[in-house]
Amino acid sequence: MSLLSDWRRGEHAAEGFAYPTYTQGGGPGVVVIHESPGLTPEVIEIGQHLVDSGFTVVMPHLFGSSHAPPRTWEAARVVPRLCLTREFTLFATGKTAPLARWLRSLARELHASAGGPGVGVLGMCVTGGFALAAMVDPVVTAPVVAQPATPLPIGPGRAADVNLSREDLAAVRRRVAEGCPVLGVRYRADWVTGTRFETLRRELGDGFIAVELEGHGHATLTDHRHPEAVDRVTDFLRRRLLGHA
């Protein structure tokens, strides 16, 4: 039986892109954006956890495998493919990934159907910065940045870049100043995240809530799942979307 058999399959088409989506649950909406190498069992597990926590979860399938453990070589093949696609920006600095417009549209659609005060967006690894890009739209009121890995941290400039254009970074700063905090989660010694948390502290001040775990892991919510990371993300979404203290 597929791990996605209880999820409703659909498709969202907007801004020149179209991707499959999987939806389940009730309550305010949360978009869970998978990491490399794809929509793996571990990503589905965190999505199911959020469904069980009282949210309507939508998981777009953007690349790689879905619902089955990836082959051992798949992760090594996904990133080079992403380098060649127009949706992602794995090397450019000071630029928002084109896929961000599609994600904002998906968040608006989810909010229209699920209701609530807004939508949560959880980005991970190569999609970590997408939560920031999505919050340019006011419908996104609970952005979560988990181990952001793009642009790839080759050199200090890329390591510090948060995958946003100058205009979108200014919009994120305004949203935070107006009362929309950003939650960030990473392992403290994870070199792939570069110095992005330092950039976010400088740009967003107290509006950036950093959860830094001890150790050398990477995937805080999936492959190297840490209970504190899961609890902090869940609590943040509950406070922002369900009004729970």
UniProtKB/TrEMBL annotation:
Keywords: Hydrolase
One GO MF term: hydrolase activity
InterPro entries: AB_hydrolase_fold, Dienelactn_hydro
Ranges for domain Dienelactone hydrolase: 26-148
Keyword Cell cycle included in the entry's annotation: no
Keyword Hydrolase: yes
Protein name per Swiss-Prot or TrEMBL: Dienelactone hydrolase family protein
